[in-house]
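User
Please review the sequence:
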Amino acid sequence: MALETTVFDFKISKSFKEWAVVFDSEDNKAMLKAGGITSLYRGLNKDDSSRAIVVFQAEEGVAMGMWNDPEAKAMIESSGHIYDQTTITQWIEG
C-alpha cells in the first residue's frame, strides 16, 4: 500500500489552545498510534483564528477510516472541531 498524507482544514468553535488540549491528549495520541497514523503538523490559520489544520500520514485509507469511526468522531467534536466544516485533501507520493 502507498503512504498517504491527509490534510484536514476545519473550523473550530473553541480557541485553538482549547482545541489543542484534546488533540494533544494521551487518549488522542494513543488512538492515532493504534491506527498507525503519524501526526505531521497542526496549526492555526494565520488570518482566521476560527480555522485550524492538521496533517496526518498513514497507509492509504487509514486516516479516512479514523475520520469515519464513531468513537473518533466523538473525540474530534469534543475538541471544538466542527466536523461538518472540514475540507479534506489526500496526497500520495508521485
The beta strands are 3-12, 38-44, 51-59, 81-92. The chain has a mean pLDDT of 95. Helices lie at 16-23, 26-35, 62-67, 70-78. Residues 26-35 form the longest helix (10 residues).
